[in-house]
Amino acid sequence: MTTSEQRDLIDDIQSRLESHGWQPQGGEGWRWVDHTYQNADGTLRIRYLPNVDVIRFDFESEEHLAQLSIAFDESPDRILDLITADQSSLSEATWPDFIAAMIDLSPRILSVTDEDGDDEVIADPDDGVAALREIEWE
Q: Strands 33-39 and 23-24: what pairing?
């Protein structure tokens, strides 16, 4: 993808998210995406860096956290469509259906573990549910 195509993609992702109520965080005005959305059950976050065909998606509630790296081929449109369609209702209860639908869209999903751990491939809905791990505040 050329630099111009990357800029267009980033602009498209930013405007799409903002039109669905997402708020820009770090990176706004630069050439990457970092946006959050708050619903009644938690915080959703999307990050995208140029030249990497992966959307980083986080869902965090008071008790659980899932951090996913979701690969896409040419365009992240279908992934973003699924996330924005479910953004207001995504919760721990709806997570299993959400992750099953995401696996249908992208067979290449990683669950990002802690800083010292290895990333785990999500190959089926059970792996996706396990990606919603408990937060242990110390």
A: antiparallel
Q: Tell me the per-residue pLDDT of 38-88, one tens digit each, with 9 for 90 and over.
A: 999 999 999 998 778 899 999 999 999 999 999 998 889 999 999 999 999
DSSP 16-49: HHHHTT-EE-TTTTTTSEEEEEEETTEEEEEEE-
- pTM of the full structure: 0.88
The pLDDT of residue 39 is 97
In terms of Cα–Cα distance, which of 38, 43, 45, 107 is closest to 71? 107
Q: Which residue in this structure is represented by tokens 């990606």?
A: 131
> Which tokens is 112 given?
């990002």
Plot region of 115 (φ>0 → left; ψ -120 to 50 → alpha; else → beta): alpha
How far apart are alpha carbons 80 and 104 in whole angstroms? 14
Dihedrals φ, ψ of 130, to 5°? Answer: -65, -25
